[in-house]
Specification:
Elements: E1 2-12, E2 17-23, E3 31-33, E4 36-38, H1 45-57, E5 64-77, E6 80-92, H2 103-106, E7 109-116, E8 127-128, H3 132-142, E9 152-155
């Protein structure tokens, strides 16, 4: 099993939209996920987020906000079992057109979409994490938590 750390960005506009990526995994159904990814070496969370958003979106000029959630999940990808600890951070920005620069990531990317946050709970799509709409609604209503909640542990 491969163990890794990852950071994902909940990129939110002033119009209360969130940017998500629709992933087409090698096996299984498509799902929507926040941009971001695994840390390399001893990279900090901020450095990981900056590198991942540049590679996946072409986004380089941004200020990251607070961490609002974390989870530990285990999944299969590319024939490997991965145990991943993820942290979710807020990034406020104006709407932009994302550009995928990472060729390997582009192979599994189906599309980008700016989702109205209010539409997530009723959408007939698969989002990961499953509690994404609740995480975003809590942040918009209450702001960042004083402390990160206990991490959700998921084993697929």
């Amino acid at each position: 099993m491969i163990h890794r750390r990852a950071v994902r960005a909940l990129i939110i506009t002033g119009e209360r939209e969130v940017l998500l990526m629709r992933i087409r995994p090698p096996h299984g159904d498509c799902f929507w996920i926040a941009p971001g990814g695994g840390s390399e070496g001893d990279e900090t969370a901020e450095a990981t987020l900056r590198r991942e958003l540049a590679e996946e979106l072409g986004l380089v000029d941004f200020e990251h906000g607070p961490a609002v959630w974390r989870r530990h999940h285990t999944f299969n990808w590319g024939g490997r079992r991965i145990s991943q600890k993820e942290e979710y951070r807020i990034v406020h920005t104006d709407r932009f057109d994302p550009v995928m620069a990472d060729a390997a990531e582009a192979k599994v990317l189906d599309c980008f979409r700016w989702w109205p946050i209010a539409d997530l709970p009723g959408a007939e799509e698969r989002f990961t994490p499953l509690s994404l709409a609740t995480i975003l609604e809590n942040y918009l209503r209450d702001g960042a938590p004083g402390e990160l909640p206990d991490e959700e542990v998921l084993i697929d």
